[in-house]
């Protein structure tokens, strides 16, 4: 309990610190790349164990590899065919163990918000050929956020948010589909969620969630307590404000990788989008001052991007300051390059024995005592021959 009281105080200090910290100019060269086009794109997560990401585009799922190659996913008779046109956000399992349920999430399974009755979560297996209801969620009018606890503070459960009566309910679902309510009184929330790593100051292990209407970013502790982290100087309001956040993973800057954000085509909107998956490389983010462990925060309207860094206090690093016509949706997702292979050790040097191999084999077979006996017999025989010759003379 003390931890969360301290966190609440720290949150207030952090929010004030962010409000007072002047934002330095972002790098003029930091801009989203329109990386690959996907019809109706609105969410992305991953990567899977094969390195591909799962991308959602209006009731159609795709696998996208590191080169941008796109393959339809889960489109067969047992695949995914729900909620066309709706923002049914998804989360890809990394395979966490849920100690409290004595079970584990299977790697590469995909879980999606089910926005039709019965409201809940739909599960797709790794192969994409088996789809079914995973859990039903009650007491909410819809669902608007989903993410896995990859840190462990929520026991590696699947975390889901939904609105009800001007508040937000936060659910935690284990690998058996059992549902636990974390809180039913969180503030209004919507958008990409993430659990903070241990490097994120007083908010480590908390579920971090944005409210695009007010621009506020909240931390929700495992016991349901809520603290305000920040209200950064970004646009606010529906279709404009903070849409997604995510934490820069370990190895991203040091080994290289990329960050991805869906840009959904939205005709008639002030930010009409392009139906592209946007990309920023680790080099460009590093050049803008982003570090591993930072929280990236992206807006829906224009895909503006900042990084928030929290230790004893919090500060802001501007990344993409010039808004575009992009219409950001869903999650921010990262890929990280694999570490370089370990050097192959040199083969051991085998010294050539001066003793012939045949001799070594002979000694090994008959033993040293046998060899000594044979040598003695040889010596005795030689002496006998010499004595015989001497007598003959």
Largest sheet: 4 strands, antiparallel
The CATH architecture of the domain at 2-24 and 38-249 can be given as 6 Propeller
Number of helices: 4
Helix percentage: 10-25%
What global shape is seen? globular
Q: Strand portion, in percent?
A: 25-35%
**What is the CATH topology assignment of the domain at 2-24 and 38-249?**
Neuraminidase
Q: Tell me how many strands there are.
A: 26
Strand order of the largest sheet: 1-22-21-26
Structural class designation: alpha+beta
Structural commentary:
With 393 residues, the protein is of the alpha+beta class. Among the domains are: 235 residues, 6 Propeller (Neuraminidase), CATH 2.120.10.30; 28 residues, no CATH class. Helices cover 17% and strands 33% of the residues. The protein is built from 4 helices and 26 strands. A hairpin with a 4-residue loop joins strand 7 and strand 8. It is globular.
Describe, in short, the structure shown.
The chain is α+β, with helices and mostly antiparallel strands.
Ordered list of secondary-structure elements with their pairings:
Layout lengths: L1 H19 L12 E5 L3 E5 L7 E5 L3 E4 L5 E4 L16 E3 L4 E2 L4 E2 L5 E5 L5 E5 L6 E6 L8 E4 L9 E7 L2 E7 L5 E8 L7 E2 L11 E4 L6 E4 L5 E5 L11 E6 L4 H4 L1 E7 L12 E6 H6 L7 E5 L5 E6 L3 E7 L12 E4 L20 H36 L1
Antiparallel strand pairs: 1-22, 2-3, 3-4, 4-5, 6-9, 7-8, 9-10, 10-11, 12-13, 13-14, 14-15, 16-17, 17-18, 18-19, 20-23, 21-22, 21-26, 23-24, 24-25
């Amino acid at each position: 309990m003390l931890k969360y009281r301290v966190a609440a105080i720290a949150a207030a200090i952090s929010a004030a610190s962010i409000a007072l910290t002047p934002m330095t100019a972002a790098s003029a060269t930091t801009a989203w790349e329109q990386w690959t086009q996907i019809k109706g794109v609105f969410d992305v997560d991953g990567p899977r164990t094969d390195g591909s990401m799962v991308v959602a585009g209006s009731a159609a799922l795709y696998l996208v590899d590191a080169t941008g190659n796109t393959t339809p996913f889960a489109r067969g008779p047992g695949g995914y065919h729900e909620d066309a046109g709706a923002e049914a956000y998804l989360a890809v399992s990394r395979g966490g163990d849920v100690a409290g349920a004595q079970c584990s999430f299977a790697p590469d399974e995909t879980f999606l918000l089910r926005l039709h009755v019965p409201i809940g979560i739909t599960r797709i297996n790794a192969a994409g050929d088996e789809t079914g209801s995973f859990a039903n969620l009650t007491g909410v009018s819809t669902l608007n956020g989903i993410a896995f606890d990859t840190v462990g503070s929520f026991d590696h459960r699947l975390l889901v948010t939904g609105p009800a009566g001007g508040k937000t309910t936060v659910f935690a679902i284990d690998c058996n589909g059992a549902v636990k309510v974390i809180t039913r009184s969180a503030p209004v929330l919507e958008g990409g969620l993430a659990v903070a790593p241990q490097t994120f100051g007083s908010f480590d292990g908390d579920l971090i969630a944005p409210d695009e209407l007010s621009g506020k970013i909240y931390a929700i502790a495992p016991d349901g307590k809520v603290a305000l982290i920040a209200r950064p100087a970004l646009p606010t309001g529906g279709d404009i404000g903070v849409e997604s956040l995510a934490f820069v993973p370990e190895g991203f800057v040091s080994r290289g990788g990329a960050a991805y954000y869906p840009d959904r085509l939205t005709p008639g909107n002030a930010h009409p989008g392009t139906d592209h998956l946007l990309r920023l490389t680790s080099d460009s983010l590093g050049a803008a001052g982003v570090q591993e462990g930072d929280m990236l925060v992206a807006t829906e309207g224009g895909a503006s991007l900042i990084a928030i860094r929290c230790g004893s206090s919090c500060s802001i690093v501007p990344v993409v300051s010039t808004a575009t016509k992009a219409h950001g949706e869903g999650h921010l997702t990262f890929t990280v390059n694999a570490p370089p292979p370990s050097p192959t050790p040199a083969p051991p040097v085998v010294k050539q024995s001066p003793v012939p191999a045949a001799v070594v084999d002979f000694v090994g077979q008959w033993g040293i005592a046998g060899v000594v006996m044979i040598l003695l017999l040889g010596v005795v025989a030689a002496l006998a021959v010499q004595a015989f010759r001497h007598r003959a003379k």
